[in-house]
Amino acid sequence: MTKRVRIGRLLATYGPLLTKKQREFVRLHHDEDLSFGEIAREFKVSRQAVHDAVRQAEVAMERYESGLQLLGKGRSTAGAEPSSIPGPVVEKLRRLRHRLASQGIIYDTAEHVRVLDEVLAQLTQSK
Prior knowledge:
By secondary structure, the protein is mostly helical. 69% of the residues lie in helices and 0% in strands. The chain has six helices and no strands. It has helices at 3-14, 20-31, 36-43, 47-68, 87-103, 110-126. The two termini are 29 Å apart.
């Protein structure tokens, strides 16, 4: 699968876990084929800020996929039944999503990785 297709699938599956700007920058860069400079001009930020946000989003989505393997199982978030996921896991994911959305660009991901590790452990135990 090409990188563009993979990023598109990752974004469709894990996009809600990214910040609004990260989602938009990744979408514009990969789907609309805009350069970092073009995106930077549109959002009045530096090219480096766009580059960092896109790369961090790609790394984060790959990390989510390596743990959850939703693409590997041929599943998408739209196909998952909420009732099959334990309530505490859903709530942790919602809190994590809220924190990610409110922080903008994230340079220290250790806390987010810790929460995702907890969620993954709970999902593994519930199967």
